[in-house]
């Protein structure tokens, strides 16, 4: 036996109350004897009735708009969580913290992207920035991140990973231009690979170089000029990853988008990122979470919460500690961080780090 439940459409319910109020006001004006009188008291009563009806309609419309806005933000938040998945607090012995803040106040999504994945080739990370921000940039973010998440496991060479990202972006832009011709779009991308011994190699396409934190010293990871951003220009024939030293135990890397350094105060002064990092490492204990909170607090205080561009920060700290113990011949060392020399077990009890 089938049962059908009759449901009144939500739009009908939304219009029912304003219609009832309007009908009551018209009925009062046409049928109530008091409304036909021209005395001052009758006019005051009539004005009060119509004022109450008008106020009720305004409040009702406001409530409907707020409900729809909350629904849009809920959907945008779900989409953001699907794109920028919460990172585990620990990945292959590296302590991780990341967060982003959209410049679009009507949505919690932005044009910044990041990801950290442990592979058999090492820990690989990406930080990128799509031209523009808000919901319009979500498609490009999805294309780049989706390609990265597959390529890092398939490609042993970091240069081939970058070529996969470039091809994915080109396909996305071609498909997008068929339906919605837009101005030239590009993406800045920074690829990092951190090996078992902490050695760092990088490929940079128009993105700011990260900062390396060693004790209380804060220095840029590299000083060379990056390649052009992905999109407008083809990649060079030779893509050789740049050796950038090592991430030793206790060292941290701070990756960021240009929205951090480009943040201005009311006088037009840029945010002093390196000075803020120097201040952050003075506090103990130094953890990615404390660095992240300190930087976001400083940026929001600098801009008074009115940043003009999306902001994203990713902090990686090497917490691997070697254990020296007697082992059978042929066995390899293992570090407390959870990464063996020949295997990388999955992170246990991952905790989201996308939220401050």
TrEMBL record:
Residues 346-356 have a biased composition (Polar residues). Keywords: Hydrolase, Membrane, Transmembrane, Transmembrane helix. InterPro entries: Bact_Sigma-Reg, PPM-type-like_dom_sf, PPM-type_phosphatase-like_dom. Residues 91-318 form the PPM-type phosphatase domain. The chain crosses the membrane at residues 41-61. Residues 324-356 are annotated as: Disordered. SMART domains: PP2C_SIG. One of its GO terms (molecular function) is phosphatase activity. Gene3D superfamilies: PPM-type phosphatase domain. This is Protein phosphatase. It comes from Streptomyces regalis.
């Amino acid at each position: 036996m089938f049962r059908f439940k009759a449901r009144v459409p939500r739009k009908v319910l939304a219009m029912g109350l304003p219609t009832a109020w309007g009908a009551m006001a018209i009925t009062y004006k046409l049928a109530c004897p008091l409304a036909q009188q021209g005395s001052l008291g009758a006019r005051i009563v009539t004005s009060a009735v119509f004022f109450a009806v008008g106020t009720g309609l305004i409040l009702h419309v406001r409530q409907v708009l707020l409900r729809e806005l909350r629904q849009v933000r809920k959907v945008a938040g779900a989409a953001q969580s699907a794109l920028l998945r919460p990172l585990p607090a620990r990945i292959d012995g590296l302590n991780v913290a990341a967060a982003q803040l959209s410049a679009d106040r009507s949505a919690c999504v932005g044009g910044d992207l990041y990801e950290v994945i442990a592979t058999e080739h090492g820990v690989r990370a990406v930080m990128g920035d799509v031209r523009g921000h808000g919901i319009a940039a979500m498609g490009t973010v999805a294309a780049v991140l989706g390609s990265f998440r597959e390529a890092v496991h398939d490609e042993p060479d970091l240069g081939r990973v970058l070529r996969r990202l470039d091809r994915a972006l080109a396909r996305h832009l071609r498909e997008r231009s068929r339906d919605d011709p837009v101005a030239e779009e590009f993406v800045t991308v920074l690829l990092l690979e951190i090996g078992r011994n902490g050695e760092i190699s990088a490929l940079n396409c128009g993105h700011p170089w990260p900062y390396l934190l060693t004790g209380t010293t804060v220095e840029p990871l590299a000083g060379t000029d990056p390649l052009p951003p992905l999109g407008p220009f083809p990649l060079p024939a030779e893509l050789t990853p740049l050796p950038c030293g090592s991430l030793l135990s206790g060292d941290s890397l701070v990756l960021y988008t240009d929205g951090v350094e480009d943040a201005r105060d009311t006088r037009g002064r840029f945010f002093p990122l390196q000075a803020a990092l120097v201040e952050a490492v003075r506090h103990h204990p130094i953890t990615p979470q404390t660095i992240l909170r300190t930087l976001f607090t400083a940026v929001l205080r600098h801009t008074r919460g009115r940043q003009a561009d999306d902001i994203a920060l990713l902090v990686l700290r090497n917490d691997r500690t070697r254990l020296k113990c007697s082992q059978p011949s042929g066995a390899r060392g293992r570090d407390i961080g959870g990464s063996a020399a020949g295997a990388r077990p999955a992170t246990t009890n991952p905790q989201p780090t996308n939220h401050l």
